[in-house]
Amino acid sequence: MTQSVPSLYERLGGHAGITRITRDLLRNHLANPLVSARYARSEDLARVERRAVEFFCAGSGGPETYSGQDMLATHKGMNISEQEFVAVLDDAMAALETNGIDAPTRTEVLGILWSLKGEVVRV
Ligand code: HEM
């Protein structure tokens, strides 16, 4: 008998789960002194949140389409530091934990986010 492994999208709770996780992620960023000013300065946080939900849904195997620019274009010219990058990953791990996502799944997400470092840090 074969057992199918649920996709990452499913393990994150699908669209509804990822929407909740993303809301907590942005809340964590706004409360994190290492990065809060970056997000507080955004002209349209509602758009950032909407796009982030799309990005995480599409990137984890969901049917959604990401309507934003790629990570390099999005973060180009921001001069984001390694410390800020780790802070954002810490906020992401905390948001996953708050939403009851298990440790193996959190580690999987961490690996995916880490793989984007070269498109975000000091680009
Ligand atoms: C792997 C890590 C990261 C991912 C996957 C990611 C993803 C995204 C996405 C999907 C957006 C929305 C783009 C849009 O609205 O079109 C965004 C925007 C943004 N990101 Fe990141 N990001 C990451 C790391 C960081 C880091 C480390 C910082 C710096 C603290 C940062 C700062 C921002 C800011 C300030 C915006 C909003 C820009 C605006 O208002 O237009 N990001 N990011």
UniProtKB/TrEMBL annotation:
Could you list this entry's UniProt keywords, alphabetically sorted. Heme, Iron, Metal-binding, Transport
Top-rank taxon: Bacteria
Gene Ontology MF: a single term: metal ion binding
Gene Ontology BP terms: oxygen transport
What cofactor is this protein dependent on? heme
Which sites bind heme? H75
Question: Under what name is this protein listed?
Answer: Hemoglobin
